[in-house]
Design goal:
The complex is a heterodimer of chains A (1004) and B (494). Chain A contains 11 helices and 52 strands. In chain A, a hairpin with a 2-residue loop joins strand 9 and strand 10. Chain A is globular, with a radius of gyration of 31 Å. Among the domains of chain B are: 185 residues, Serine Threonine Protein Phosphatase 5, Tetratricopeptide repeat; 57 residues, no CATH class. Classes of the chains: A mainly beta (1004), B mainly alpha (494). Chain A: Pfam families: CarbopepD_reg_2, Plug.
Chain lengths: 1004, 494
């Protein structure tokens, strides 16, 4: 805690220093900026005293306050609106109405390699303002997108610092890199957990193939374009945002208490013909609630400091960020420090150069992944500690191997720290060559290092938790990526014709390296001892590995519009990837074309008053995915430890060929067709967008199981094996208005529907079984087959529970016991076996939706975000994973079969048997949920007051993230996720939690 | 155009040219990236060292899960009357399906066993296809090929016993057209096994220098061949092969219990063992789980998972005074000769003592008993095969003599117990030899297929559910049948 306060005081100190610099006394002018069209207030409008660098921005409610000479002129500038100049003339209040340059015509969205007027876009691009991301409690920007954009499905993981899973318009890739491509200021990333959300200016999601195809090479799963904040012309604006809050588990699972546990374990023993383990269950009372013991309300603090400003020729943006997040599991902690600096220099009239550099340091104290399983399984009869202070030991209660642990001891003796350093950014030069030509070159880099250090001491906590030797594990990963891009843009207007032509070329290199090392008998009298070299020399071991891929690409784009009425966009990208060198098409070509018709620009629409805007658009494009394993067609030697031969006790390296590679591998291509419309009604107060898409992945790359008798170690052969389809529609609507009483509000909703299907597989109806985790007892719970969805759940259909021996005798499961699942003999052959398995559910969400409301009244503002998914199933793999006397949920205890007639839906406690734990319909549950994602209430203190404190603006807020989630699923959270063919299998995912915060935002 | 602008344009053009130059100049090599941390196969199979490493992989792979742990125990031990699942009732209860003959083509571990044996076979086929072209010492090359043939034969023998007809692959598939092949009739598979073993025995040395201890020997090839011939009832061959092995200098290790301990690995009785070691600096190579899965469960310290435990049928099969009973069965609560007390709280009354490793060898975070070699073939079995063949061929004296050598050791030096078998009745002697195999080779995964070979399975295992005409073999894994799109036909009754 002391260190936290030190940091806070340093930050506050910096803020205070800045005040005197920024504040020169004049008269204070206040006011509000509204849109001339829809009358809503406009935030982030630049307000500048003409001829000076003294400026500010309007706040979330469009309000501003600036000190200016009484005879000055204020300049109001906002992208997409006509700039206005208003003389102060001694007025203390100036309300400004900005006219959008041509209604919505000038609204701009960020697209690949540039920006485009929204009205000119013929594809499907979701745009989210940085402010909407940074205002949320999420420490990962992507997490904050949940429910914000139609067709974009986010699965959050509650672990501090973890990256959520993002799926854009369904799962279209099975193998290799199935994640989206992130592009931050032109540099490509697979993950952006290093990025401080407060640094984001704008985030665009390229959803359809025509917008993506300019990034053909890696765009098949969607592209997220992020631009970070850059300096604005004007005097330094210093902002501090800080919040403090805590996280709390919202939907805990109630487990059986000690008495209930002892009761069911006795039932289990009896059912297995063993004596009772507990003589008197009631004597154990309620026992230990392990979740309560190990979980906590976790503290989260966040500080952001930024300085922004510039002149005609240069500008700067500097920011510092600090996040400290405790995990809900005691001992878990995550801290992230970020620093970012960007500068732009107009060094000569035609030449602009600039750079962005950001550094991130992440420090975390980790928890073992097994802890959630242990909390579920631990016996409540075991005390945390005995009276003498030693750990309660499951062994003393003869619980057996399934839960022979004390979770408190597990976290106490788990000592793992991770450190992640990352530096990335880019430098660019932009040269206006002739009147209409701009050349831009950009060099980006991403250098990261990740260290994980784990230490196990010599200890004995319980009989089952001990170590006879100490052990130090050190892991180090390095990332070294660079990207060079050159683009030449020609832009011109001839009468009614607008033309922009872009040509570009890029090269990329991505290199990663890891080394893991272990030594035993390392002393630990201080942190300084934790070196492998101090360990026992005979026990030191090292492994390493790496990957290297290179890409080269050329691309071009033509944007043409006639009278702002007829739009045509076309792109072509040619990509070469080292993956496809030697065997396969080295070059992949990815074209796209889009057309739009802005009907409201037609002469015949001139007099109608219904539509303020009506645009029809259609597009088609192709994208690829080079995110397949490196050198896929190169046969390599396997030399795993398992091949090491032992002769006379000595190890000798073993190597051999144990895999198959395809001789030829083509680019996986996704072809997408989109049609849609955009419409605005009622003086732009109501905006509607809707679209239909059909996205077909052709020649999808993945491993098809080959005959096991070939004897390969992987059992499959990758190749261009299947065609997949994601088809669906998206709809979004926004209503914005200001009431006469001064209440400004907007309500927006979005809905996405997606249907996923495997269209064809080269080997026909050969199923691919997966989802066999330890928690399904090795049973394979998913199947991917021609005609079905990717990774659908597959298993037995439960008809009921066997009540007595007579029912069993009359059934197709002669070996069953009363209380076991009665499965449907679907093939009717009189025996229940693997051939009776059927499709049980679909882990791919069918519907995802979001609903947001923003209200502003006087100095108050309120945000409400709702979000949910429907038409999705989860496989609850926690409950049947049993090796002994693991605990049961209270729900199971209450509903279990324990004698004839007690239940026809829940089995007996003997559900760990192979037959009962086999993947079946009992474990497949509805994964739909709806939740209140964010609620935030803010208040901007009166300017007159804060000005006295030498501030321009002070806003305070309270908010909650995930305070309410409604779902029927019987696990901790319906947000499960997983890789495409193993999705939706809940094997102890991180619990769902709500975050409650209080925060301040100060601008000086 | 003023001077400044021209200057800037020059800079601009230079930038464009240079960046395009960078691209075109190195385009080809830029995209030709070497595999990282992986040796391309085209650089392999060039030197004697490559051949050595490839043969090493064959031996290393024999330690793995499929060859020594659950899949092997499920297929080769659970069905027998000597062993049952053990462990805690809910843990991996599918093992009971092998014990009670309710296993189907989707039962867990079935595919693992199939896969494990074919992985061995692929490694051998790679060596047999590729090493001949390597320019190296001719004798060493011939020996390496013989070693590969031995392991290939061993793996096919395990497959053909378990499944009957199996796809016979004697070469690495050249292309996809050779991927999907039907099951080869059992007789042809056996013929291939015998050919491999003949060729191996002709080349393999009787023994190796210390540094090569653990490699397949001539004795191993001959003894395995004898066992294969015994399954084919080729008694002349069994007798001839075992007679030869009996001249190679093997002998029974005096102390039965001690012969299974770590310090007596590769002893004078050992014909072939899967070599395992717990290497503190190589956890990946310390991957045997043979002892871990069979170690006493619920013991302090944690010695393992407690699977494949002896039955009371086995316990009562021993004659009074037979030292092999206490050496084979590790009782809950007992104190071992090495001084380890097995906890009274252990889950099961009996465990397999042949997989027992003293507590002081257990290292936290390593598989318990990862250093225990798996005894595949012992000289005692050679004697018993010799006795059985001699008996079948009417050489009663030899049969008695070989049988009684095995019994003599089991007395543990105590006179008056385990009297010599003296019957001259062929049937009675056969029964005695079978009985001796039961107790001598107990818990070494011999019993199940031995009883089937003897033709008594319906009698011995019938009460557990074994049915003639079906349970002689296990089902082919359903995944393999699905992948073959009907080329592979299921065994009858499954």
């Amino acid at each position: 805690m002391k260190r936290i306060f030190t940091r806070i005081s340093v930050l506050v100190g910096i803020c205070l220093l800045a005040i005197n610099v920024a504040f020169a006394q004049n008269i204070t002018v206040k006011g509000r900026v509204t849109d001339g069209g829809d009358k809503t207030t406009i935030p982030s409008v630049s307000v500048l005293v003409k001829g000076t660098q003294n400026g500010t921005q309007t706040d979330a409610n469009g309000a501003f306050s600036i000190s200016a000479p009484a005879n000055a002129t204020l300049v109001f500038t906002y992208l997409g609106y006509t700039t206005q100049e208003i003389a102060v003339n001694n007025q203390a209040t100036i309300n400004v109405v900005l006219q959008s340059s041509a209604q919505q015509l000038e609204q701009v969205v960020v697209v690949g390699y540039g920006t485009q007027r929204k009205i000119d876009v013929t594809g499907s691009v979701g745009s989210v303002k940085g402010e909407d991301i940074s205002k949320q409690a999420s420490t990962n920007a992507i997490s904050a997108l949940q429910g914000k954009v139609a067709g974009v499905s986010i699965t959050n993981n509650g672990a501090p610092g973890s990256s959520p899973q993002i799926t854009i318009r369904g799962t279209g890739t099975i193998y290799g890199n199935t994640g989206v491509l992130y592009i931050v200021d032109g540099v490509w990333y697979d993950d952006i957990s290093f990025l401080n959300p407060a640094d984001i200016e704008n985030l665009s999601i390229l959803k359809d193939a025509s917008s993506q195809s300019i990034y053909g090479i890696r765009a098949a799963n969607g592209v997220v374009l992020i631009t970070t904040k850059r300096g604005n012309k004007g005097q330094a604006v210093i902002s501090y945002n800080g919040s403090v809050g805590y996280k709390v588990v919202t939907n805990p699972i109630e487990m059986a208490n000690a008495t209930e546990y002892a009761t069911v374990i006795n039932e289990l023993s009896a059912s297995n013909g063993k004596p009772n383990l507990f003589a008197n269950p009631a004597s154990y009372g309620t026992g230990t609630n392990w979740y309560n013991q190990v979980f906590r309300n976790a503290l989260q603090t966040n500080h952001q400091l930024s300085v922004n400003g510039g002149t005609e020729k240069t500008n700067y943006n500097f920011s510092l960020g600090y996040t400290n997040e405790d995990g809900i599991v005691k001992t878990q902690n995550y801290q992230r420090y970020t620093a970012k600096l960007s500068n732009d220099f107009q060094i000569l009239k035609p030449l602009k150069i600039g750079y962005t550099v950001s550094g991130t340091a992440i420090k975390s104290k980790d928890i073992p992944g097994s802890i959630f399983r242990q909390l579920y399984a631990a016996g409540p009869v075991v005390p945390v500690y005995y009276a003498d202070g030693s750990y309660g030991d499951a062994n003393d209660f003869s619980l057996g191997g399934g839960n022979n642990f004390n979770p408190q001891a597990t976290i106490d003796f788990f000592n793992q720290k991770s450190l992640n350093y990352r530096i990335n950014g880019n430098v660019y030069a932009e040269l206006t060559i002739a009147k209409n030509f701009t050349f831009k070159t950009s060099l980006g880099g991403d250098f990261g290092q990740n260290e994980v250090r784990a230490y196990i001491p010599v200890y004995k906590a319980t009989q089952g938790q001990s170590s006879t030797q100490s052990q130090l594990d050190v892991k180090r990963d390095e990332t070294r990526n660079w990207i060079i891009e050159n683009t030449l843009t020609y832009k011109n207007t001839f009468g009614n014709h607008n033309l922009t032509v872009l040509a570009g070329q890029t090269a990329q290199r991505r290199k990663s390296y890891f080394v893991n090392a272990t030594a035993f008998d390392v002393p630990y009298s201080s942190e300084g001892d934790l070196y492998l070299t101090l360990g026992n020399a005979g026990t030191r071991s090292v492994t390493d590995g790496g990957a290297l891929t290179t890409y080269a690409s050329y691309f071009g784009r033509v944007n043409y519009s006639f009278k702002n009425r007829y739009l045509l966009n076309a792109t072509l990208r040619a990509d070469a990837a080292s993956q496809f060198f030697n065997g396969g098409d080295l070059w992949g070509y990815f074209p796209s074309v889009g057309a739009g018709w802005v009907i409201t620009q037609e002469e015949f629409m001139k007099d109608q008053t219904i539509f303020d805007n009506l645009k029809l658009k259609a597009s088609w494009g192709k994208v690829g995915n080079a995110g397949v394993p490196v050198n896929p067609t190169t046969l390599t030697i396997s030399q795993p430890g398992g091949y090491v031969a032992i002769f006379n006790g000595v190890a000798y390296t073993g190597k051999n060929v144990s895999s198959l590679v395809p001789s030829f591998l083509n680019w996986e291509r996704t072809t997408g067709t989109d049609i849609g419309f955009e419409a605005a009604f009622l003086k732009n107060r109501l905006n509607i967008e809707a679209g239909y898409y059909n996205k077909k992945t052709e020649q999808a790359i993945f491993g098809i199981p080959v005959l096991t008798s070939i004897g390969t170690s992987s059992g499959d052969l990758i190749g261009n094996q299947a065609d997949l389809r994601n088809r669906g529609f998206e709809f979004s609507a926004t209503w914005r208005d200001v009431s006469k009483a001064g209440l400004s509000y907007s309500i927006s909703g979005n809905l996405g529907y997606n249907k996923n299907k495997v269209l064809s597989v080269v080997t026909g109806r050969n199923p691919i079984y997966q989802g066999g985790t330890g928690l399904t007892n090795g049973g394979l719970s998913t199947r991917t087959i021609q005609g079905g969805a990717i990774g659908e759940f597959f298993g037995y259909q439960v008809a009921g529970i066997f009540q007595n021996a007579a029912e069993i005798a009359a059934s197709a499961q002669k070996g069953a016991k009363p209380g076991d699942f009665k499965y449907i003999d679907t093939d009717g052959n009189g025996v229940v076996d693997g051939n009776d398995r059927i499709v049980l559910g679909n882990p791919n969400p069918t519907y995802s939706y979001g609903l947001s409301a923003n209200l502003g009244y006087k100095n108050f503002d309120l945000t409400l975000d709702f979000q949910g998914v429907a038409g999705i199933d989860i496989y609850n793999a926690n409950i049947a994973s049993r090796f002994g006397n693991e605990n049961f949920t209270k729900d199971f205890y209450d509903n279990r079969w324990h004698g004839e007639g007690t239940s026809n839906t829940y089995p007996s406690v003997n559900l760990g048997t192979t037959a009962n734990s086999a993947p079946n319909s009992f474990y497949v549950e509805d994964g739909s949920y709806i939740r209140l994602r964010n609620v935030q209430l803010g208040y901007v203190l009166p300017s007159a007051l804060v000005n006295k404190w030498k501030m321009q603006r002070l806003r305070v807020f309270v908010d909650a993230q995930n305070p309410v989630t409604l779902f029927g699923y019987k696990g901790f959270t319906p947000e499960v996720g997983g890789t495409p063919m193993n999705a939706g299998i809940d094997s102890n995912v991180y619990p769902l939690q709500a975050t409650y915060r209080f925060g301040v935002q100060v601008t000086f | 155009m003023n001077y400044k602008n021209t200057y800037i344009q020059k800079i601009g053009m230079l930038t464009i040219c240079s960046s395009l130059l960078v691209m075109s100049a190195c385009k080809k090599s830029f995209l030709d990236v070497d595999p990282q941390a992986k040796q391309p196969a085209v650089t392999f199979w060039k030197t004697a060292d490559d051949a050595t490493a490839a043969v090493n992989s064959i031996y290393g792979n024999l330690r793995n899960w499929a060859n020594t742990a659950f899949p092997a125990l499920a297929i080769e031990s659970m069905g027998s009357d000597e062993a049952e699942k053990g462990s805690s009732p809910n843990d991996s209860s599918y093992m009971n399906e092998y014990d009670q003959f309710t296993a189907s083509s989707t039962t867990i571990q079935l595919n693992g066993f199939w896969e494990g044996q074919y992985q061995n076979i692929n490694l051998c086929n790679q060596v047999l296809d590729n090493v001949p072209a390597i320019s190296m010492d001719a004798n060493l090359k011939a020996r390496y090929l013989a070693e590969a043939k031995f392991v290939r034969a061993y793996s096919y023998f395990r497959l053909v016993r378990a499944f009957g007809d199996v796809p016979l692959r004697l070469n690495v598939p050249k292309d996809a057209s050779e991927f999907n092949i039907p099951r080869t009739p059992k007789a042809q598979v056996y013929a291939a096994i015998e050919k491999d073993l003949d060729e191996a025995a002709a080349v393999l040395p009787q023994s190796y220098p210390a540094a090569d201890l653990g490699r397949a020997t001539k004795g191993a090839a001959l003894a395995l061949h004898a066992k294969v011939a015994m399954y084919l009832k080729k008694w002349d061959q069994v007798l001839a092969l075992t007679n030869t092995v009996m001249t190679l200098g093997y002998n029974l290790f005096p102390n039965y219990e001690q012969s299974f301990r770590l310090n007596n690995e590769n002893n004078i009785e050992s014909i072939f063992e899967i070599q395992c070691e717990l290497l503190l600096n190589n956890k990946d190579a310390s991957n045997s789980q043979y002892s871990q899965v069979q170690g006493a469960r619920g013991n302090t310290p944690d010695t393992g998972w407690g699977f494949n435990v002896p039955t009371t049928a086995l316990e009562s099969a021993y004659e009074p005074g037979d030292v092999r009973r206490n050496a084979t069965i590790l009782y809950r609560g007992e104190t071992t000769p090495q001084g380890d007390a097995i906890s009274n709280t252990a889950d099961n009354p009996m465990y397999n003592q042949k997989a027992y490793v003293p507590f002081n060898k257990i290292v936290t975070s390593f598989n318990q008993g990862a250093d225990q070699n798996v005894r595949v073939m012992r000289y005692a079995e050679v004697l018993l095969m010799n006795a059985e063949a001699a008996n079948e061929l009417g050489n009663i004296t030899l049969a008695q003599s070989s049988l009684n050598k095995v019994r003599a050791r089991a007395r543990g030096g105590v006179a008056g117990v385990l009297p010599d078998v003296t019957t001259t009745d062929k049937d009675a002697l056969r029964q005695a030899i079978w009985k001796e195999r039961f107790v001598e080779l107990a818990m070494e995964s011999d019993r199940y297929f031995d009883v089937i070979r003897q033709g008594r399975a319906a009698t011995v295992f019938g009460p557990k559910g074994w049915k003639a005409g079906k349970n002689e073999v296990w089902p082919i894994p359903s995944q393999e049948i699905e992948k073959s799109a009907g080329t592979i036909i299921q065994n009858p009754g499954y």
